[in-house]
Fold:
Amino acid sequence: MMRRLWQVVAVLLVGIGLMLLATGCPKPQSDENAPASTTGSGQAAPAEGGTPAAEPAGPEMTASSQQSAPETPAPTSEGGASAEPAASPEMTPPAADAPPAETPSQQPAAAAAPVGTPYELKIPAGLPPLEIPADNPLTVEKIELGKILYFDKRVSKDGTISCATCHDPKMAWAEHTPTSKGIHEQVGGRNAPTVINAAYAAAQFWDGRAATLEDQALGPVANPIEMGNTMEGMIQNLDAIPQYREMFQKVFGTGITPEAFAKAVAAFERTVLSGDSPYDRFQAGQADALTDAQKRGLDLFKNSGCADCHTPPLFSSYEYYNAGVGMDREKPDEGCKAVTGEDSDMGAFRVPSLREVANTAPYFHDGSAATLEETVALMVAGGKDNPHRSVEFDTVREAKLTPEQQKDIVEFLKALSGTYPIIEPPQLP
Ligand code: HEC
Ligand code: HEC
Structure:
């Protein structure tokens, strides 16, 4: 009996060990606790000869320090500011089991209890259920607030940049430039990923350094080359607008706080989903939803290794690999290495989801591929050779797909365009 038990324990331990091993790049949520996830992003900062001069123990400090990472020429935008919010969920007792009577004077963030009208999220056909964090339930009012904030340029230091500047609903919630231009025309080093379906990602950013949308949302605000603000600066800007004070009070029962800002924006982002594509209809049994070329492309996609990484239904495994993109630059973007410090993570980036991919050119973490054809050609080649190229690309490489077959795959990728919300900028308070 005892021996059995030990065997079980041993198996479990080995299992956990393997899971940890498999974790190449930051998988913040697999850490034991929230602070650890913070370290995922924080870690890199101190190691990088920290610039954290200014702010006192402030989270924004992490943002700037990571930002000015000397080895990372391409400023990884929305830097370690992820560190900030990462701490906040910790402080916020899950709404459900926060006994209001027992804890008389909670800090404001604790007022996460669902205030307002519960929002029923419609998941488009073909997408899996979406997990909503217990401490940030969706309400109609919160989503509306998040939407307004998403479009409000006053979130940035000088009132010139909103989230929508770089993640424009009219550009499939991304941007059609290789890299983004932020405050004072400063250009970052990475391509703005689409916000569509970001809610499903196992971690946010090309290097996964933020665990959740809540963790992510304050990053760009304090990023010196994106919105260039500080938390205090943003709060000040918003606090000056009486309607915002009212809305935050109504939604969160608090004043305007960074945590509440992050929650509202994240709640809004969770409504930005795309599914119900020709591919989804085909999967649901509608045989003519795909063209013949697309059907051939789907088979090739599944059988030549693409689907190992771009795994349906989200078309990403959310793992991290080095495809050799940009590795021939003088100072390549280190990708995951800047987060984990591991040399083996050099140039590894998160597998992007391919939903809506036909609408989000240019491609790759640095926006270096202008067309889908060019992008697929590099994937079919199994990436570009470099000392850190992931061996997982060998399957595609060995499949030696012909130009005709590549064309079919490109056609197939177009079948991943479905329906997503295209919203007009709301009236700002
Ligand atoms: C100046 C352009 C710019 C602005 C402004 C900006 N972003 Fe981003 N965003 C980016 C870039 C570039 C990345 C990728 C950075 C990286 O991976 O290191 C990104 C990444 C993201 C991601 C992660 C998506 C994924 O698939 O990993 C989300 C979500 C996001 N931004 C939401 C927002 C929100 C919300 C705001 C406003 C508070 C915002 N962004 C403001 C450029 C911008
Ligand atoms: C070993 C994992 C892996 C395999 C196999 C793989 N990919 Fe990728 N794919 C990636 C990674 C990682 C990136 C991002 C690389 C970067 O930006 O540095 C990527 C990027 C892409 C992009 C660009 C998406 C965007 O939004 O920027 C497309 C399109 C794509 N892959 C299609 C394919 C196709 C088609 C196949 C099969 C021929 C394939 N991939 C095989 C991991 C993989």
Notes: Residues 2-22 form the longest helix (21 residues). The beta strands are 320-321, 349-350. Residues 8-23, 27-111 have pLDDT under 50 and may be disordered.
